[in-house]
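Handout, section B. The chain below has 55 residues.
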Amino acid sequence: MIKTNELQVGTLGGTLCSVWASVSWGDLLHTVIMAAIGTLVSYAISATLNRVNKK
């Protein structure tokens, strides 16, 4: 009988394998770059608003 933990690990492994096969390196790189840009813009806006609110 399969334990719940083994079933969850098997399901996760199968899901990761199917996602891994369908994602190209170009898509992954694009996602990482866009996330980094979004983080930098969010930080810059937050810092600017903090400076404006302190004055």
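Note. The mean pLDDT is 89. Compare this with the example in section A.
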